[in-house]
């Protein structure tokens, strides 16, 4: 008969063999298969880059659009985009955001409004966000976003947040108080603390985080910005104005009504079973 010492060693070897059999297939997978990016992200800004992509520092504004979309889509090479904007021209001082977004290098995207335009323009009340890699909300100055579109987005806030957490991207440009007079950014409740502030862009600086995602100081100066954020909701600060006010925020973390969700506690690891005394 085997002694207890031999039995214990055999049990240990059996446990080791099982562990190797389980872990080996995982270790043989490429790193990207083991750590696939989850997708999803939010980028909000007081820059009206859709207007300035055609006026003043056009290249800087275009790069803001490119970086924002690249960031929230995790560098999707050909993202399927839904642009949210009114199709009503407010007149002098405003520019259609669609050509501005096209000038940044994106073509063939869908446009949705509050349901009033009809025709090829989709109805924001019923559009399926999950069909898109990114929802880009135009600015209300100098873009054409109006209160009607924001009211619909606010009513669908839970759907938008679920969409982001399921891998969708959300980019929202300036909401100055011109055409959107109340409940600005209400579709992201933690950003209801934005403050309209029209200012020529000089002395603005990108943060270390902003530089890491592809922006430079040259991108965020030379145009006009139209609102700042007084709270972050746990998002990363992208750039600030000359007084240190927050101009843009971004995150790839899961979000809820309060902002970035706190990290869950580490998973509980059960204690390793004792193999018995080696005697």
Report how far apart the termini are: 15 Å
Low-confidence stretches: 1-35
Shape: globular
The largest sheet has its strands arranged as 4-3-2-5-6-1-11-10-8
Structural class of the secondary elements? alpha/beta
What's the helix count? 8
Rg is 25 Å
Order of helices and strands: HHEHHEHEEEHHEEEHEEEEE
* Overall helicity: 25-40%
- The total of beta strands comes to 13
Strand content: 15-25%
Largest sheet: 9 strands, mixed
> Roughly what is the average pLDDT, rounded to an integer?
87
SSE layout:
Layout: H1 4-28, H2 31-34, E1 41-45, H3 49-52, H4 58-72, E2 81-84, H5 97-103, E3 110-113, E4 122-123, E5 134-137, H6 147-155, H7 157-165, E6 169-172, E7 194-200, E8 205-206, H8 208-212, E9 224-229, E10 236-240, E11 246-251, E12 255-256, E13 259-260
Parallel strand pairs: 1-6, 2-3, 2-5, 3-4, 5-6
Antiparallel strand pairs: 1-11, 7-9, 8-10, 10-11, 12-13
Describe it for me?
By secondary structure, this protein is an alpha/beta fold. 28% of the residues lie in helices and 19% in strands. The protein has helices at 4-28, 31-34, 49-52, 58-72, 97-103, 147-155, 157-165, 208-212; strands at residues 41-45, 81-84, 110-113, 122-123, 134-137, 169-172, 194-200, 205-206, 224-229, 236-240, 246-251, 255-256, 259-260. Residues 1-35 have low confidence and may be disordered.
